[in-house]
Amino acid sequence: MRLYDGAIGQSYQVVDLGLEDNITRRLESLGINEGTRVEIFNKKRNGAVIIKVRGTRWAIGKQVAKGIDVKEIAQ
Fold it and tell me: How many CB atoms neighbour CB 60 within 10 A?
């Protein structure tokens, strides 16, 4: 499933970053790699997704969130 389709308050594990190379490198520099745990905090009307990664909150755009494949983690 895509990160954009995830539920608020749920944790996911990144399976694949299916984005352009420059965006993938930027996300990896922020700590968003394959296997990283990501929690969805909120979703905005404009499509932005607020996530928590390794104790830090990030806002990512709709198109970026649609390019991140994740799987659900049981809490």
Answer: 23
